[in-house]
Write a structure and sequence with these properties.
This protein is α/β, with parallel strands linked by helices and about 170 residues long. About 40% of the residues lie in helices and about 15% in strands. The chain contains eight helices and five strands. β1, α3 (about 45-60) and β2 (about 65-70) form a beta-alpha-beta unit.
Length: about 170
């Protein structure tokens, strides 16, 4: 996002990722501190911790007109995060790991991504999602509209059945 000209604030928990953000030239701050200055809040947290962090550090600070963005639909699909009705809720889900997303961006290419709109409070949610996808290079490869539900189910299926070896284990059994 930063390399595409978007101003980026990093809300980060202490630890190795915070150290890496600093090494990459960002000035990470506690999550609750950066929310007020952001139009688009992108949650790239692990599925298993996102709801707790959202409820403790984000929910009480998010304001009408902001956009809540996800890189995976899990927490919205399963109702673990319930955003307020006066914010946009969007998703841009690159179909590969962040390291590949970055390396292809630097090469002037991109990897495909799915995007979805869960809540369009402003009337601009689709425009915001497509701008985000463009800024991370996904539009160079292709951006396809879906739903949070479909993205979640297909992603989990792909992870468990293909990447984690479910089909091969079933075949062997």
């Amino acid at each position: 996002l930063r390399d595409s000209g978007a101003p980026v604030l990093v809300g980060q928990r202490p630890g190795p990722s915070c150290d890496q953000a600093q090494a990459d030239g960002f000035d990470p701050a506690p999550i609750s501190k950066v929310i007020a200055g952001a139009d688009l809040l992108i949650l790239t947290l692990p599925d298993e911790t996102a709801a707790e962090i959202y409820n403790k550090q984000i929910a009480t600070h998010i304001t009408p007109g902001q956009t809540l963005g996800f890189a995976h639909g899990f927490n919205i699909r399963y109702g673990l995060i319930t955003p307020p009705p006066d914010v946009d809720v969007i998703m841009v889900a690159p179909k590969g790991p962040g390291t590949l997303l970055r390396s292809t961006y630097v090469e002037g290419k991109g990897i495909p991504a799915l995007f979805a709109i869960h809540q369009d409070a402003s009337g601009n949610a689709k425009r915001i999602a497509l701008a985000w996808a463009t800024c991370i290079g996904a539009a160079r490869a292709g951006v396809v509209e879906t739903t949070f539900e479909i993205e979640t189910e297909t992603d989990l299926f792909g992870e468990q059945v293909v990447l984690c070896g479910g089909v091969s284990a079933l075949t062997k059994a």
